Amino acid sequence: MTTQPVRFYQVGSFAVGNRLLPDDDRTVQSDQNRTNSLDSGHRACQGCGEALGARYALDAAMRATGGRLVAVNATGCLEVFSTPYPETSWRIPWLHSLFGNAPAVATGVAAAMKVKGKGDVRVVAQAGDGGTVDIGFGCLSGMFERNDDVLFICYDNQAYMNTGVQRSGATPPAARTATTEAVGPEPGNVFGQGKDLPRLAMAHDIRYVATATVADLHDLEEKVERAMQLHGARYLHILVPCPLGWGSAPNDTILVARLAKETGLFPVFEAEYGKVTAVSPIRHRTPVEDYLSIQRRYAHLFGEHSRTDIIARIQAIADQNIATYGLIDDEADSRGQKEVTA
Amino acid sequence: MLRQIEGSRAVAETVARCRPEVVCAYPISPQTHIIEAIGAMVKAGTLSPCEFINVESEFAAMSVSIGASAAGARAFTATASQGLLFMIEAVYNAAGLGLPIVMTLANRAIGAPINIWNDHSDAMAVRDSGWIQLFAETNQEAADLHVQAFRLAEELSVPVMVCMDGFILTHAVEGVDVPEQSDVDAFLPPYEPRQVLDPDDPVSIGAMVGPEAFEEVRYLAHLRHLDALERIPSLAAAFAEAFGRQSGGLVRPYRTEDAETIVVALGSVLGTIKDAVDGRRDAGERVGVVGITSFRPFPLDAVRDALSGARRVVVVEKAFSVGFGGVLSTDVAMATHDAGCSLRTVVAGLGGRAITRRSLEEMLAAASRDELDSVTFLDLDHGIIERERARMGATRRSGPSAENVLRDLGTVASWIG
Ligand SMILES: Cc1ncc(C[n+]2csc(CCOP(=O)(O)OP(=O)(O)O)c2C)c(N)n1
Ligand code: SF4
Ligand SMILES: [Mg+2]
């Protein structure tokens, strides 16, 4: 008898179809009783990947903790668009203090819960890439090093969006920002700079580090759930396209995020105690042009004076990631996860 | 019970008896002995339950305190000088959020030139942050003020900074009656937050506020400080009743009854000033002194009343506003602007320079003769200043002033007298 293997990635978007899954495996987002931790009515731009990522992550964390959750937020788009006084989109206890101190504030919340005998209340801290890799890094590294019981989530939109799209330490090479303009012989952000925060987090040997994108909801939710099952310092780095800063169409947010992964530019993986334990393999290897050309922040690489040399350098980065993390593998399991034997 | 004990130790033991639940530690002289002692108590289990957190910076120390306080825990930390400046963004934030954190400030100068000794530049740098700032005159008062600080902070939802002179108080060993646990428990009820991060009753704290309401929110903070002006004296009275000694309050006059000249100052230098006042009284001059315990909120009415009979007011300050003059003096001037007295500023004791009784008496004698300049730098070595000014005039690349002055002095070890 011939058998046909079940493929979850059947729809054109490669998203896992919820309908094919048993109830228990369906996403938190598909649950009518999800918390809507970040509720509608906020002021994010259309198609904002950060708003999406925050709701996905926090709803998953709420389910994982049975609703016993506190969120600490750094200054940035997420904070500004969610709480224009006197309104708030947060349905969970939420605290914003400063731009660079969210990890430390979260440490304080966790310490208070412990000392108050409310150890069941868990703490998530969240920030944009600027609040994570640049101004908040001192506090983040301290929180990691002390192994405080905090899940820190970075919503990486690769620039300081709230202040008008300036370069951060997470801005990729050649990307145009307001402080790396697309002018001169080397337009956009320089090559060879920037921080790889997931790897820096791993270097602290913390319990759990993972990356995810808003394109793969199942994967993102599973990583949040896994993180909330563990204690100590944990780090989740979510790629969240920003239509305004990237110059992508609002209805392409998921597509752009998926291409970041499928090109190899954004490796999706998990690590425990500093060792990579699983990677999400590339399903359809895609040239970086496909990803770059739909974002106006790379417009200077295309058209009349196209810069194939720069595109080639970006392709080389993707290829290097693919080799480093082993992102291409036919033996990936049906869920798209490849286990790495450490 | 009176014990011979270091000031820092007395404060640490007192703070422990206030049952702080989260204590952050980051070292900076002269605050170190306070947090070290508390850390040892937590480690030994004598202070429990308490989370003692060794953070990576003062910015984190205040930030952890913010999170802990917002989650309903009694939070304490201590710092000084550069440390206070390093955390300043979070210092303002704690006050803006109305979180009743208590912090010891072991007053120390601010560099450059780097200097670990005492003055009040650090406290003045956060004068407008929204923290209540209480100045201790003695180690007994430093200890007692912490008990009052927690209660004041928590009643009003305002953070309180207890300022004690670095080294002069923190490292001085003298007799202190450390408040007993049972007395502290009776005086200081458990912390009942006005706002708290609680999954059973979720609130958003720290929202963005635009022009439509910012002024109102700030004014409410001001009103809480005005409330503190009422509460500080009544708490001091309640404290006196419970503990049998006077500590705290707004202002403390000494021999001001018929005084023509009244000195105003903050902190431990008041002891020396009182001796100088006694000396001038013996010489027949009618002088007195008013110590200000509550620098923020500033007790305009109490200061005005305390200075009401004076013809001359001399403000002795361990800090100054570069390019202007006195800091405390401007506040005192606000209190006395229509009182018809003259006001003089004496900047003294910067970077640990000893303020001697003799210098103070000479200054007071000059004041009584109306010969004091509007701003005087006590014991300033004019020769050094002139030589450095000459060097700067003679050549463009005259080099760093601090090093030039030290070379000129020819001393290697620190000279503070
Ligand atoms: C100490 C401090 N410096 C600068 C700012 C201004 N600022 C506010 S939000 C922001 C950008 C945030 O960027 P990121 O963390 O990447 O978050 P995003 O807005 O992109 O989501 C900046 C620079 C600030 N609020 N505080
Ligand atoms: S600027 Fe970008 S991150 Fe900010 S709200 Fe708009 S889409 Fe979202
Ligand atoms: Mg960003």
Total number of helical segments of chain B?
15
Q: What is the top-level CATH class of the largest domain in chain B?
A: Alpha Beta
Shape of chain A: globular
Order of helices and strands of chain A: HEHEHEHHEHEHEHHEEHHE
Which homologous superfamily in CATH is the superfamily of chain A? Thiamin diphosphate (ThDP)-binding fold, Pyr/PP domains
Radius of gyration of chain A over all CA atoms, rounded? 19 Å
How much β-strand is present in the residues of chain B?
15-25%
CATH names the topology of the largest domain in chain B as: Rossmann fold
Please, what is the oligomeric state?
Answer: heterodimer
CATH architecture call of the largest domain in chain B: 3-Layer(aba) Sandwich
CATH topological fold name of chain A: Rossmann fold
Mean pLDDT of chain B: 97
The residue ranges of chain A in which pLDDT falls below 50 over 5 or more consecutive positions are: 331-335
**Largest sheet: number of strands, sense, barrel closure of chain B:** 7 strands, mixed
Distance, first to last CA of chain A = 38 Å
- In terms of DSSP E residues, the strand content of chain A is 5-15%
How would you characterize the overall build of this protein?
Chain A has helices at 49-64, 77-82, 102-115, 129-134, 137-146, 197-202, 217-229, 243-246, 253-262, 288-292, 308-325, and strands spanning 69-73, 94-96, 122-128, 151-156, 208-213, 234-239, 269-272, 275-279, 338-339. By secondary structure, chain A is α/β, with parallel strands linked by helices. Chain A has a single domain (23-339), classed as 3-Layer(aba) Sandwich (Rossmann fold), CATH 3.40.50. Chain A has a nine-stranded mixed beta sheet, sandwiched between helices. Chain B has 417 residues and is α/β, with parallel strands linked by helices. Chain B is built from 15 helices and 16 strands. In chain B, the strands form three sheets. Chain B has a seven-stranded mixed beta sheet, with helices on both faces. A six-stranded mixed beta sheet of chain B has the order 10-12-11-14-15-16, with helices on both faces. In chain B, helix 7 (139-156) links the parallel strand 6 and strand 7. The longest helix of chain B has 30 residues, at 214-243. In chain B, 52% of the residues are buried. The mean pLDDT of chain B is 97. Strand 2 of chain A pairs parallel with strand 9 of chain B, so a sheet runs across the interface. Iron/sulfur cluster is lined by residues 44-45, 48, 50, 77, 81, 157, 161, 242-245 of chain A.
